[in-house]
Amino acid sequence: MPSQRDVRNRIESVKNIQTITRAMQMVAAARLRRAEQRIDDLRPYADAIRRMTRQAAEAAGAVPSLPILQQHETVANVGLLLVAGDRGLAGAFNSQIVRAGVAAGKESQASGVSPIYFASGRRPASSLAFRGLTPAESFVGFTDRPAFADARRIASRLIAAYVDGDVDRVEIFYNGYVSPITQVVRRETLLPLQQASILGDDEPEAETSASATVKPVPDYEPDPAEILARLVPDYVEVSIFRALLESTASEHGARMSAMRNATENAGTLIGDLTLQMNRARQAAITQEIMEVVAGAEGVS
Predict the structure, then answer these.
(1) Alpha-carbon distances, residue 233 vs 143, 178, 224, 269 (angstroms)
(2) Could you tell me if residue 216 is inside a domain?
């Protein structure tokens, strides 16, 4: 049975850990509020870009014969971008993205398509390397506060890989932010445009009443095909930036929840250890009393 000193030292150690986890929880909560604000600020612009790209694609009819807009005849390689974090201590935040990406890679291999991995964040990059799936390129050092320049750098690399024929399809995996305690793994197709998730977005249903407002038909200057060619790179960049922001908010939410659970578990452990120490003290006092009584009886 451990001594009272050993138990007391362990209690102090757990209290120190509890102090750290509580501080990390508060920091994550503060960063989460800022991340939520950035998502709210971006969503109108991102939705507008996606809507304009979809409308231009519908107006253009036949997709222009530009490399970025051409759908490859065969799909031999698929680029999988895994977006997660640079740090751990966030529950299953990082691991669920890696699992989803690796599972998608195995599905592609089963259908005769070779996966080529790209990683945003040190955790997915190291996890892929540990599994022997070293990513073609890793983007690290900005997951706590991503900038649009980071999204543009990633988008340029993926667009170049698609245009050069290194990949025939580009997909992205990230944690979509729902609430501080809920993050949903999302999988979206960025390229080619003909298969992009953007074309599957549902428009709000039109009013069926007699007073429903008729939507105006936009006039394009220059023609829709040229506008589409300009919009697609912006659409890819904004889609990646939105994924980075949602992933950042999800990471802070997951870390806040993980640290809150760790703090509560530390409190429970401290209670158990305190009870154990009190029992050890009581046993020691009882033993001393018995020794005093036995000594007194021996003298008499």
Answers:
(1) 22, 27, 15, 53
(2) no
